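Possible race condition, two jobs.
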Amino acid sequence: RGIVERIGDAISNPRPLVGLSEMIINVEKLKDAPEVYPDFLGIEKTTTLIRSPPGTWKTTALREIIMALKDKVHDISSLPCFIWISYRKSLSNESKAKLDDLKALGFRICNYQNTLGDLSIDKWDIIIVQVESLFRIEFTARPFVAILDEANAIMRQMSSGTNARESENAMRDVLRSARHVLAMDAFANTSTLSFLQAYRSENIHVVDNKYQPRIGETVEFIYDPNSGAEAMRIGYDLLRQGKRVAFVSTGAVIARALIEKASKLSKSDNSPVRACAYYGDMDGKQCQRDFSDINVAWDELDCVAYTNTVEAGISFEVTGHFDIIIAITNITTPVHVEALAQMLYQIRDCPRHIVSLFYQKNSNELFRPPGHENIRAELASARPNNLHTAIKGHREWNNNTISYKVDESPAIITFIEVEHQKRLFARYFIEKLCSLIASTGASLQLIKMDESRGVIGNRKRVRNEIRVEALVIKNTDFNAVATSRNLSSEEAEVLKFDQECSIADIMALKRFYMRNLYCKDMSIEDWNNICNRKFIENFSSPEARKHFLRLSYFRRQGHDEENAMKELKAEENIQWEIACYKAEENLEKSVAEDLRKSYSANHWKAIREFFQILGFTGIDDKRILPGNIVSEAFVQSCERFIEIRNQSLSLFGFKSHAKTTPDLNSAIKAINAIAGNWCGYTIKSDKKRIGPKGQQVWQYSYRINRQPYNSTGFGDKGAPELPPYRPKPDNEIQELFDSIGQNK
C-alpha cells in the first residue's frame, strides 16, 4: 500500500494500546488515586508499573506523596532514599526544579550533574540521576526507592551507546537492591513489563489509567511531500496574526531554520516575533537557565521549536499560551515514535495540533525485521566484532555447533525487547503514531493541503526559504568547527562533562573528535591547513567516520588487498580457536578477548566478492569496465551473488530487497546498499552514445566509486588519508620464517 492509504487507514482505525490490565482506574489526576502508588514505608519489596496518559500529573502526585511522608516519621533521614532515574539531562534539570518544594521542607536533594564523586544514599534523601551515571550511587544499609521516570526511554537508553554494559550493570544493582521500584510511562507496553520482570522476581503490580485527557480535541494530519512546507506556512501565517506557535521537529537543523525564519517575521501590531530553538547542542548556560523554569522562559516567547533531545525536560503548564503545536517529521526518522508522541503533549492546554508527515528515503536505507526470535537468532549468529556493546559477555560458546548461544540474562531480555520495539515502531511508524495519539482520547483527522494558487506560491516560497536557512545553518556550523581552537585531551575531557558548555566549546569538541579520528598523528600546522569548512562538511557525518574506521582496519592487516584478506582470516581463525579453548574455563574472559577484534574477515570477503562478481579484481580495482564485460561476469557469477545476498541478514544485519532472480541492475542496487553502508564504496555506471547519426546506441561502463562524500573520497586532496597497507616483508626474511615453520 502507498503512504497516503496507510495514513488514511491508520487515522480511520487506530489500534488500541496493548492491554496490561491488572488494576484499571479512570482518573483525571493521579493524585486522586494515591492508593496506586507503593507504600514507601513498607518493608516488603514491591514493584509497581503505572501506565497513565500524558498530562495526568504522574510526577506531581508522586511529589505530594513524598512530601506527606515527612509527617509520618520523626526524622527525614529515617525515610528511604529516593533515586529518581531519568534518561536525559534536560529531564534531570526539570525534575530538580519541580522537587525544589521538597527542599524547602528539609529534604536533601542532589542533582548528579552538580555533584562530583559518589552519590551516597546516606548523604542525600532524593538523588536525581541519569541512566549513564547510576554507577556513582553508593549503597549503604539505608533502604531506597528506585523511580523510573519514562521507563520505556530508560530501557532504550541503558541498552544503547558505548556505556551500555556499565549502564546495565548499574541498573541491575539498583533494581535488585531497591526496596520499592516504581516505573511510570504514558505508553508502557508488554516490553516494559518484561523488563521489570527480568530484574524483579516478585509480582509486578500493574496500574492502567484509562482516562483520556484529550477527548474533544482533534489532531490534524497532513501528508506533505514538500517536507512539511504546508504546516510551516500555516504556522507562519498564524504568527503574523499575533498567534503563538510551537514547532516540534525531529531534526535540530530544521528546528533552528524554523526559528530563524520566524524571527524575521512581524506580528499584526508590527512588533517582532520572539522565538527560540531548543536542541541538543544549544548553549549550555541558556539550557540550564531556561529548563530550570520553562514556564517563565517560554511565557515571554511567541514561537518555540524543540527536538526530541530536549523534550524530556519540557513541561509547559501555562494555560492557553500557545495557539497551535505543529509537528513535522520524516516517516523514516530515527527518532522513536513514542518520543514524537510525547513531544506533542509537553505543552499542556493547547487547542490545536497538526502532525505533518513526509517521506524522504534515507541513503542506504536498511530493513531489519522485528520479532524476538529473529533478534535472538541474529545475536547468536553475529560475529563477535558485530556484537552490540550491551550483549558482550552474555553469550556461551558451543563446541558442538561452533557457534554462540545467547543466555537468558536480564541484559539480553532488555536488549531484545528494546530492539523489537524499535524495529516494530520503525516499520509501522504511521500506524503506531496514530495509535499512541488516539490512546489519549484525541480524534484524528486527515486534512488536505490548500491548493489555491496564492497558497501554492506561498508554500513554495516558505519551503525554499527554510531550505536556504538550513543550508546557512549547516555552513555556519561547519565554519565554526573549522575555525575553532584546538583542544588538548585534558581540556576535552573537562568540557565533555561541563553542563554549561558554550556553543564555541561544543564546536571545539567536535573539532577535537575529528582530529582524533582522522588526523591524530598529523602536526598541528598540517591539521590547521586541512581542517577547513569543506573538510568538516564532507567528513563529519557518522557514515564517513564509520567507513574510515573500517577501511583503516582492513588496510592495516596486510601489504595489499589479497594479503589483508588472508591475514584477517588467519587472525580470525586463531581467535576463534582461543575462544573455543578457553570457553569452559573462563567464559567472560575468553569472550572479552574474542570481542577485541574490529571487523570480521567474512564481511570483507563478501564485499570483495560482490565486486568480483561484476568483473573487478577486488576492492582496490580502479579500472573502468565496459558494460559487456560486467554483464558477462555477472551472468557467470549470478548463483554466487544470490548466495552472498542471502547471507546478508546474518552478516550485515539486514535483508536485501533485490529480486529473487536478479538482473544486473537489481544486483547493482543490492551491492550498493550493502557495500555503500559497510565502507562507502558503490558501483557507478556511466553511459554515452556511440555509432553513426541516426543509429546511435547507449554504451555503458562501470567503476567502483570511492567518492561518496560530496564527490570526495579518502585520499583526495583536502581529505583524510587512509593508512597505507603494511610494508611488504623482505623476501629473505619471509623465506626464513617459512623455513622455520616447515621445520616444525
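Job #2 (started ~2 s after job #1):
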Amino acid sequence: MSTVAADSASRSGLWKGSTDTAVPSRMRSVDAARCASSPRLSPVMPCLAKWCSVSQTESKPMRSAWTACASDSWMRSRASVPSGHWTVWKRPNFMRVPLAASASADIRTTGLRNAMRAWEHRRMTPANRQTPVRGGRLPAERLRAQRLLDPTDATPAEVVADLLAVQAQDGLATKWAVGLRTPRGASTETLIDEALAAGAILRTHVMRWTWQLITPADVRWMLALVAPRLVAGAAGRDRELELDAKTYRKVNAALDRAMRDGAHLTRAEIVEVLERAKVSPEGQRLSYILGHAELAGVITSGVTRGKQTTHAHLGLRAPDARSPMPREEALAEAALRYFRSRGPATDADFAWWIGLSLTDARAGLAAVRDQLVFEEVEVAGKCVTMWRGHTSTAPMTTPDAHLLPAFDEYLVAYKDRSDVLAPEHTRHHNAGGGLLAPTVVVDGRVVGTWRRMLARDAVEVTATLFAPVTKTQQTAIERAAKRYAAFLDRPLALTVDVLA
C-alpha cells in the first residue's frame, strides 16, 4: 500500500486487504499537545523507540485483536510483534497511518518518530530509559533494593535510615525485619534492642496510623509531611471519643511538662499525668491521645523498662532532627528514598505506603524522576510503569529463602502484591482483622507461612507451605530458619508441613 493510499484509507476509515486488520474503535486519537504534557504518558517513550526498531521482516500480518495495555491505553499486537515489545499508542490526530504489516516500514515508523518528538521536552535521559521487561525479575530487584539479597554492611540504624521508615506495630517482628537486612550474623535481637534504647532508632506513629521505626534525623520532617492528613482523617473518631483540638493541646502541654526533664514514662504513669490534668484516659481515648501526641512531635518511644515500653520527650530523643522542609522538597525526598529502597514500584504503591494522595505521590515522583530508572513491566497480564533506583538487575543464581516477619516491608510497602503473592494464597497471609501472617519466601515469592514458639532451651519454628518444594528449596528454607535462630541466639527446632 502506498503512502498516499494509506493516508486516504486512514481518513476514510477503510482498512481492507488480505493481511490488514481493522483498527478497533478503542484506539482513539489524542491531542499531541496533551500527550506531550502528560507525566503519565512520558514514561512510554522507550517503548516507542523499541517498537521502531522492529523491522518489516520481523513483523507478521496481524491476525489477532489488539488488547489494551496499562492505564494509558497503550496497545500490543501479540501476533505482529516479538514477545516483550510494546507497540501502538493512541495515535495523534495529525498522523493516521495503518500499522498493519502490509504497509511500508517507513509509514509505520514515521508516525511513531513524530510522536516521540512531542515527548522530547520531558528530557528523559538515557540513564533512566529501560526496555520493556517481564514482571518475572521483579522479586529479585525488590529483594536487592530492600537489602534482603546480599545486604551490605550496615548498623541497625543505617538499615532503618536506608528504608526511611519500617512498619513496626509488632515489636518482636520488627526487630527481625531489621536483622534480616544486615549481613548474616552481623546483627542480633540484643543489638537492635540497644539501638532502640539509645535512641538511634525510634518507634513512633508516622504513617497510616501504625507505628514505624524511623531515625531521629528523619522523624520531624516526615511528621510535618504526613501527620496533618492523618489527624484530619481521624476527626470522626475524635468526635466519638469527645476529643477536640483544645483537649489535645491540654494533653500535649501536660506531657511536655512531665517529660522535659528526661523522664521515660510507662502507660500507667502517663495515665496519672492525664488524670492530674483532668483528662479522662478511659477506653480507647488513651491510645488516641498517645497517637496524637506522637504525631504532634511531643513524645516518642523511650527505653524499655523490664517488659514495659515507655514514652519520652521527642526533643530530647531527637535533638539533631532535620527541621521540617517545604512540602515540595519533602515529597521529593520521600519519593526518592522510597523508590531507591523498594523499587521497582508504581506511583500508586508509593501513595499507599506513605499514606498521601496519589496527586502528592506523583508530585514527589515528578521532582526526582531524572534520578530514577523507569520500566514498562508486565504483571499479571497488565503493563504498568514502575520506577526504581540504579540497582543491579542481575537475577538470583541459587535458591534463596527468607522467613519474613509479619508486616514486613517486602509485602506491606506495595499496594499491589500479586507479583510476589499469588491471589489464591492471600487468605493464608491475611486472615482478616488487620493481622498479617509471617511468610516463607523462596526466590522472592511467598510459598507459605510460618510461626514460632519460644521454648525454654530453643525456638520452635513451624513452616506451612502452600505446595511441595524441591529439595534444594527446602534446604534454603532450613538455612533461613537457622539464621532466625541465630538472631535470637537460640537452638532451632524446625518443622515443615504442606497444606493438604
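The radius of gyration is 27 Å.
Logs attached separately.
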